[in-house]
Write a structure and sequence with these properties.
Oligomer: heterodimer
Radius of gyration of chain A: 19 Å
Radius of gyration of chain B: 25 Å
Number of domains of chain B: 2
Largest interface: A-B, 18 and 17 residues
Helix content of chain A: 40-55%
Number of domains of chain A: 2
CATH superfamily of the largest domain in chain A: Malonyl-Coenzyme A Acyl Carrier Protein, domain 2
Strand order of the largest sheet of chain A: 8-7-2-1-9-10
CATH class of the largest domain in chain A: Alpha Beta
CATH architecture of the largest domain in chain A: 3-Layer(aba) Sandwich
Chain lengths: 302, 546
């Protein structure tokens, strides 16, 4: 039985989601990072709180599954999710990954205080959106085509007015949905080069290992097996689009029988189900670890 | 003067087999020695055919090839009709292979695109099946072939059963030019049910740890057929099959053609067409043809490969299928492609994109899928001589030296399942050619070969057009509300209808309200089982009821 482990990024965090997390692990994270995790709605208006809490939730789940004897054959993380994925693949230690994400969040917060963000367009192909972006993008008002979430769902990153102009053009061209996202950074675009540079420097100091399974890289959608490629992705995925659609297409070419989506949320399982009915799905935000263990045992013969 | 040695290949083969003799007991090697056997018999730079067919995969040998030491075996030039399994590409990641010549890569098309972009894989060419099989005897003569058999006897005779597919073609290319033939066997037996490949052509046999992979690729669940597809099927039966009196044909693998197969015993019967159309087929044993066979429509079916679950049914219908004395079907992809290209009057298939001129392709951005049988069967064999009513019906009237033409029919809904237009000004394939630096645009079926396009709007009889402008107008007229279709206008449509270049459902006497699912001879997998008198045994993934 081959399994594909999926790690979402920011978006589905909610107050109280850390309730069942191992208190020792939570304490450790707070000690390593110097950040007190609030797990409240107010707390989740802060990017560092969001990023650390989601990572904590995912790593808590990874540890539990691994303790039960389960290992991934393929890991795919979306944006922040790359850190949970790299941890699950045995690339980075627990302490390092929390410190790194804490720094990442801090750098992101201070990089663009206002006027920048992201938008999403549903219903146009990536080529169509690229054409619209080309019409609007200027050096003063930059806008970039960013994440490829599915064939007809792509995001924009850049200056807010430029994003709004592209969204308007997209609506005129018949997009089913074109709206701003609640993201305060132009993530996954060249505008994040400064943050990536500093992350790259910090990562250079860490001891990382080759992935124990196939790691699907955000920045180009390729399956990689070398530590250098994972390292590049962890440091630089903020400056590249997340090629999620390609990552999943590649993952499916390895014929996984099971997918496990780590918390929070179930968005990526939904996208996967549109593509194939040949994969059995587990979403950890909707069941206990024991339920997941039961299902994995049941499907083991596959 | 020293005399030239005229048998260097034979000497080299003997030396290699000699080098592996410690691992061999006669022709037989042990399962656990497979990696060592491959390391001993394959040399760097070899041309290697790894049997990846459309359905059958030499999966034991492909997994072993991905485990050889890349210091010993590297830079292989792989020749595969179908790139289907992850390890078919892993060998490139590992440096075991560097070059690939292939036909179809649908199940691995994203990674193939990536590997070409990364230069991890160098592509020779993307072939039609017949081109690739043909080149095995000309300029891609293999050093080693790795194939799969169901049963092998103590002498080394092979039984390949229902899924013979291209095994004999691959083995022949090696066996008669001093290549090494290595076979994985599901089972070693005292006596094979029949000899599909004689022992004399085989060098090494290795019992596999588990049976070769076999996929039911041509099973279509009738429940997934839409009423739009039924409408298009009715139009095709009236406006093409009946009009051109088509007796010999090949169907693609989509739901459109499944709908037609299931309409023959109902709608076709109502039209009184039984015995007049669709008698001789080149086709995999598709379960949706069972009702037509049982109703007496079908005289014969020759097949490229088998289909999981159809074994008992086929064995019980030897008048229709090609069945050995042992009671199992004999398939052959190379001969099937020859028959499909040269001996059939019509090919009906589907595609993902059609451009304004009528070229079609299933290659899209990021997916270099290659093509299956469509480019052979969907091309007009200009050297054909034999005459039939269907072929002659496409002959231009004004040329005394004119000859007939093969019917090549594309059936598409104007918008694809991704809600994007199927009709486009330019195929994605044009861009893919640049990205992958291919010599040719990966077009599946060329405009010049396409004689008819069927959509939910109507039929375009492209063979009747006498200029590219008129051909484009005919395509626009049936392209619905796609950007290409919106260029059409009612006046133009009327003109084309009057000239018989396009036909709308009402022109064909097809009523849209009659296109109901109840018109299908079978509406569920269960119905197909019933039509087969319980002989058809659907694979597990199609058993929604159990």
């Amino acid at each position: 039985m081959k399994s594909l482990w999926l790690f979402p990024g920011q978006g589905s965090q909610k107050a109280g989601m850390l309730t069942n997390v191992d208190p020792n692990l939570k304490q450790n994270v707070e000690n390593w990072t110097g950040v007190k995790l609030l797990d409240t709605s107010e707390g989740y208006s802060d990017s560092q709180q969001i990023q650390l809490s989601i990572l904590l939730l995912q790593i808590n789940e990874v540890d539990q599954l691994k303790k039960m004897g389960w290992q991934p054959d393929l890991v795919a993380g979306h944006s922040l999710g790359v850190f949970g994925a790299a941890y699950a693949a045995g690339v980075i230690s627990k302490e390092d990954v929390f410190k790194l994400v804490s720094l990442r969040a801090k750098l992101m917060q201070s990089s663009y205080p206002e006027g920048y963000g992201m938008g999403v367009i549903v219903g146009l192909s990536r080529q169509e959106v690229a054409e619209l972006v080309k019409q609007v993008h200027t050096e003063e008002n930059p806008v970039y085509l960013s994440n490829q979430n599915s064939e007809l769902q792509n995001t924009l990153s850049g200056e807010l007015n430029a994003i709004k102009q592209v969204l308007e053009l997209a609506s005129k061209q018949g997009a089913a949905k074109a709206k701003l996202l609640h993201v305060p950074n132009p993530s996954h675009s060249p505008l994040m080069a400064n943050v990536a540079e500093q992350l790259d420097y910090e990562i250079g100091k860490l001891h990382l290992s080759n992935p124990a399974c196939i790691y699907l890289a955000n920045n180009n959608g390729h399956p990689v097996k070398k530590v250098a490629d994972v390292k590049y992705d962890l440091a630089n995925n903020l400056t590249h689009p997340v090629f999620w659609e390609t990552m999943i297409n590649v993952a499916l070419e390895y014929n996984p029988q099971v997918s496990i989506e780590f918390s929070p949320g179930n968005a990526f399982t939904k996208l996967l189900k549109v593509k194939t009915d040949q994969v059995s799905n587990i979403t950890l935000s909707e069941m206990t670890i024991d339920d997941a263990d039961f299902l994995l045992n049941k499907w083991k013969g596959k | 003067m020293t005399e030239r040695n005229w048998h260097t290949h034979r000497d080299a083969k003997a030396a290699r087999l000699n080098g592996a003799s410690a691992l061999l007991d006669g022709k037989f090697a042990k399962t656990e020695d497979v990696v060592k056997v491959l390391e001993a018999l394959i040399k760097p730079g070899d041309k290697v055919v790894l049997e990846g067919d459309n359905q059958k995969q030499a999966s034991f040998l492909s997994e072993a090839l991905a485990k050889v030491d890349a210091d010993k075996v590297h830079d292989l030039h792989m020749i595969m009709s179908s790139i289907s399994r992850p390890e078919h590409l892993d060998i490139f990641d590992l440096g075991i292979a560097t070059k690939m010549d292939f036909s179809y890569a649908g199940p691995q098309s994203t990674r193939v695109s990536q590997m070409i972009a990364d230069k991890t894989m160098q592509v020779g060419d993307i072939h039609t099946y017949l081109e690739l099989f043909g080149r095995l005897f000309i300029d891609l003569i293999p050093n080693v072939v790795l194939v799969a058999a169901d049963k092998v006897d103590r002498e080394g005779n092979l039984y390949t059963g229902f899924n013979t597919e291209e095994t004999p073609t691959i083995v022949e290319a090696a066996a008669f030019h001093d290549g090494i033939v290595i076979v994985q066997a599901n089972e070693i037996v005292d006596k094979v049910p029949r000899v599909d490949i004689p022992a004399g052509w085989v060098d090494v046999v290795i019992p596999a740890d588990k049976p070769y992979q076999l996929e039911p690729l041509f099973t279509r669940d009738p429940q997934a057929i839409s009423e739009l597809q039924i409408l298009m099927g009715m139009m095709a039966i009236r406006g093409i099959y009946e009009k051109h009196n088509v007796q010999t044909l090949n169907h693609g693998v989509g739901f459109n053609t499944s709908a037609i197969e299931l309409l023959l015993p109902t709608y076709g019967e109502q039209l009184g067409l039984k015995g007049k159309i669709c008698r001789n087929w080149e086709l995999n044993p598709t379960p949706t043809l069972i009702p037509a066979i049982e109703s007496g429509w079908v005289d014969s079916i020759h097949s490229f490969g088998g289909e999981v679950g159809m074994e008992k049914y086929i064995a019980a219908r030897p008048d229709v299928f090609f069945v050995g004395k042992d009671g199992t079907m004999r398939s052959n992809r190379a001969l099937g492609q020859v028959a499909g290209q040269y001996a059939c009057d019509m090919f009906v298939g589907s595609t993902l994109q059609i451009d304004q001129w009528g070229n079609s392709s299933t290659v899209t951005h990021g997916r270099l899928s290659g093509f299956g049988g469509a480019p052979n069967m969907g091309s007009n064999p200009t050297g054909r001589r034999h005459s039939t009513a269907a072929w002659q019906s496409l002959k231009p009237a004004d040329d005394p030296l004119a000859k007939g033409q093969k019917l090549v029919v594309q059936m598409v809904e104007t918008f694809g399942s991704n809600k994007k237009p199927v009709f486009v000004d330019h195929l994605d394939a044009e861009e893919v050619r640049k990205e992958a630096k291919l010599a040719n645009v990966p077009i599946m079926i060329y405009s010049e070969d396409t004689t008819h396009i069927v959509t939910e709007e109507g039929i375009a009889y492209l063979y009747k057009t006498d200029s590219m402008e008129e051909r484009k107008a005919a395509i626009e007229a049936i392209a619905g509300v796609t950007p290409v279709g919106l260029r059409s206008n009612p006046e133009e449509v009327k003109k084309l209808r009057d000239k018989g270049i396009i036909a709308l459902p009402e022109d064909l006497g097809v009523r849209r309200q009659d296109a109901k699912r109840s018109l299908l001879a079978a509406q569920t997998m269960d119905d197909l089982v019933e039509w087969s008198h319980g002989l058809y045994n659907p694979p597990a993934k199609f058993r929604s009821w159990s």
